[in-house]
Every structure is written in structure tokens, then in C-alpha cells.
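To the team - 4'-deoxy-4'-aminopyridoxal-5'-phosphate complex, inputs and output below.
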Amino acid sequence: MPITATEKIWMNGELVDWDQAQVHVLTHTLHYGMGVFEGIRAYETSQGPAVFRLTEHVERLFASAQILGMEIPYTVEELIDATKTTVAATGLSSCYIRPIAYFGYGEMGLNTLPCTVDVAIACWPWGAYLGDDAVTKGVRMKISSWTRHDHNIMPPASKTTGNYVNSSLAKVEALRAGYDEAIMLAPNGLVAECSGENIFVARHGKLLTPPLSAGALEGITQNTVMTIARDLGFEVAVDNIARSDLYIAEEMFVCGTAAEVSSVNSVDDRALPCPGPMTMAIAEQYLATVTGEVDQYKDWCELVS
Ligand code: PMP
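Output:
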């Protein structure tokens, strides 16, 4: 999806003009993929723009860095403030936000210990990642020929830039084959997640979603959806999912900050009931939640000013 330029990008403590937010071609992370990033959304609420679960996203950025042994030279609070400052500087009421921490220019070679850590935060308008009608019409899924990382190869719990080689290979393979998104299986064959979303399937009336141990990212939308689903009275469990569970799911959806809640209409050309009643109820409540309309979840909407 093309990026729409906005006014300012936050880089290492300063707001710089969009076109000035440059890095050197010998930036360490460009060569070795050792960067960590986040994908966050701000939504328009009746009290002004609010960043959804901003604190949890910034905390996960620090957790991703911790897994890599990278020390971000700011505090969680400083990057929360910096994110709000960046959103306010663009004047957008809703947007996608991309913070990234990376090893900068100055050192080369695989040893990251002497490297400086740079941080940038950008935001721009971005629509529904899997399409505007992804909730009602559903998306076509393909199980990828690419396997999700093993924990001892690339840590899937860290939102590391280099990990996304795996996701991109899977996504492009699925698109070229005429599908919308790829489902990734772990090395042991169990379902992990999609290239950029977590998965929920309904079996015997209960919603299941794979654990972090299966190679899934600990999704903030996954966590939000579990809370919403339970509060709506649905049964939810974090549990292993086998490939066959996907083919005979009573309903299935995927979720992530970019994709929000999107129904799945088929997996490997096996049609699934779509949109499912639980999916529709959760998707509706999710939209109301992120836009600050549900009192019990209002604290998740962190106002920009
Ligand atoms: N899995 C992967 C691989 C992702 O890239 C994302 C998007 N960050 C997710 C799951 C969903 O995470 P979240 O709900 O926190 O956006």
C-alpha cells in the first residue's frame, strides 16, 4: 500500500521534516535485519485522536529489543510522549504509527555491541490492511510453504525487522497464488499465525488461538479480542491448533493492528461459514472499542492531547 507523506517524523528526539528523515546506506540494520518495530493505530474518538493501547505497544517494542539484547536509549514514557507528539504534529485524527529502533551508522560487522541505537516514529493515514470488506466478505487464506521461525532460529516473540523476511516470503507467495493472506505453520506442523496477524478458529462453539510457544507474536489485538470475546460471553482458550482444525472451523477470523478483525472465508480452497456470528459480534465491538465508544475499555484509548 502506498505511503502518504505527512508533515513530520520523530528521529532521535527531534521532529524533522518528512523528506529529511533519512538514514545512511551503511546503516547497520539495513544490512543485518537487527531492528525492532511496532505497528500502532490512532483513532478518532469523541475526545479527539487517541492511540489504541499505546503503552502496551511501546512496552512490546522494549521487550522485542530486550530479546535482541538491544538497549533503547529512551524510557517507555519518553517514547509514549514522542508518539503522541508525532501524531499531534501531523494533525491527523486517525492514522497508522510506525516506531522503529535500529542499529545506526558507524559500525559494520555482526557484533552489535558497539553500535548506536537510533529511534524513529512516523505516522500516516492507512486504511484496512486486508480490504474494507474483509469483515463481511472474508479473506482467502493459503497455508504457506514457508515455515514459521523456530524459537532457536529467529525469536518470533520479538517484532524484529529481519523476522519479516519469513512473513514477506509467505505473503507474496499467497498473493501470487491468488489468495489474500498466508497462514504459517510452526516447525512441528501446528498453526502459528498469519504473515502479520494472529488467528482465531471456532471449534465446538469455542474460540481457540495459538500460544506464543507455537511461534505466534503476542498480539495486542489478540489480547483485546480475547477480553472482548469473553465479555460478550464467548468461551476462548489459548491452545494448539492443528491444520485440520482450520479446514473444519465453524468460523475463523484473523486480527492485528493493521488488519483489525477480518473474517476468513476459506483455507486452501475449503470454504468456511463466513461471516460467522461470533466474528461479526467481536468485529463490531472491536471497532466501537478502538474509537472510545465502550466505557469499560476507554482506558485503552490513550488521548494524544
Ligand atoms: N503476528 C505478526 C507476525 C504481526 O506482524 C502482527 C502485527 N503486529 C500480529 C501478529 C498482530 O499483532 P498486533 O495485534 O499487536 O498488531
